[in-house]
Amino acid sequence: MTADTLAAPRSPQVRKKGANLEKWGWVYMRASGVLLVVLIFGHLFVNLMLGEGIKGIDFAFVAGKFASPFWQWWDVLMLWLALIHGANGMRTIVNDYVTNATARKVLVWALWLSAGLLILLGTLVVFTFDPCLGVTADSMLWETCQG
Q: Which residues cross the membrane (predicted)?
């Protein structure tokens, strides 16, 4: 039997030793999907339903949320789960449709590299956000940042 043919449905399957990464990827997609639904709807509810709704979302609103460790971790968890979930989904699509092994490997590496870079940058933004950075005397935030 060649690599291009499928085994008979009831034939015994030989599995490689070690961790079954495809199984854990499948489990991750289900678990992260459920958690993302909770995180995203919580995010939307707080941002759009409480307070003034969409009219209340401005720089001060974001600065106030990022001043709280609870909301920092909420947003970072949402960011991490969403990016890893999306990259894993794209990896599955690449594995399904890209037949050239070298191209598949390059694309999967590019996916994980870009997801990792976005996770790193997004995490840095959330935890190092300073609304007073670069504020000058002619800014609306000058008085707030002086206190």
A: 27-50, 70-94, 106-129
